[in-house]
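call fold(seq) -> tokens
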Amino acid sequence: MNKKRLILLFSVLVIIVAIFIVDITNDDNNFSDKPEKIKIITTIFPLYDFAKTIVGDNADVSMLLPPGIEPHSFEPKPSDIIKINKSDIFIYTGDFMEPWAKDILDGLDNKSLHIVNFSDRLELMGEDKEKEHHFEDVNTEKYEHEHEHGEIDPHIWLDFSNCQIIIDSISNALIKSDSANSIFYASEAEKLKNDLSILDDNFKEGLNFCETNTFIHGGHYAFGYLAKRYELNYLTAQGFMPNSEPTVKDLIALIEQLKEKEIKYVFYEELLSPKIAKTISSETGAELLLLNPASNLSKKDFENNISFIAIMEKNLENLKLGMQCQ
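ret:
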């Protein structure tokens, strides 16, 4: 065997060995002990945004509510139920915002699913009969739950002190389900809580010196928690459900309040028709301003990764304008 042939044979052997090593390496990667990311399902946008902020790249977070859909009318599809059953953590606000959740959860065969429900962790507001909230009482099957003060307000995330509790609960669930990343989750949760504390302080300061402490909303009763926290007078024509219709008496009362207090703006909300707000505006000359309850996002805002805090900062700007704050 000549020298050239020996060199060729040696080269072939080197290539075969190299391929063999690459195959072994790929097999090791394919069958590594690296665990899959935990799967988290949230129902509405604030829970989704908080969970996504806390986990970073360590878990998969999805929102059950499609962007652009008003959450009060949402009903999960069979594919949504399958997603919940395959998840590790399911996070929802409670039986008043998601009245469908309990029956679905009771029927799942995923007994290891970690369920986070805030209705039993937070003090829920009912309709305050002593305040001047002009709306027709809502009487629907989904909201038949009794409360000593009337209907239950499910918009718990609009009190930022409640958000602190929500974030702690999400963080604790993550740490129990994925202890390997517990330090990261705890750290990110604290950062988020700090950002919300700053937001809370900005609301207190920004709404402290205003020409009026009243804001009039031509949408459903969504901002009761916010109004209570910052000692504002909140007037709206509708009840807790967006499809509740105001009476003529309710609308006249709101228009009279707006004229009496010389209020220059009326608020409408994201994802719902501004019909009532436009009616009040046409009767009084008041200008329209957006006030976003942030229960869900438009498709555009979702694609642009708008955060809960960014939405609330815009709400503060509009409230300061609407109530003529310094």
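Strands lie at 38-42, 59-63, 89-92, 114-117, 125-126, 152-153, 214-217, 233-236, 265-268, 287-290.
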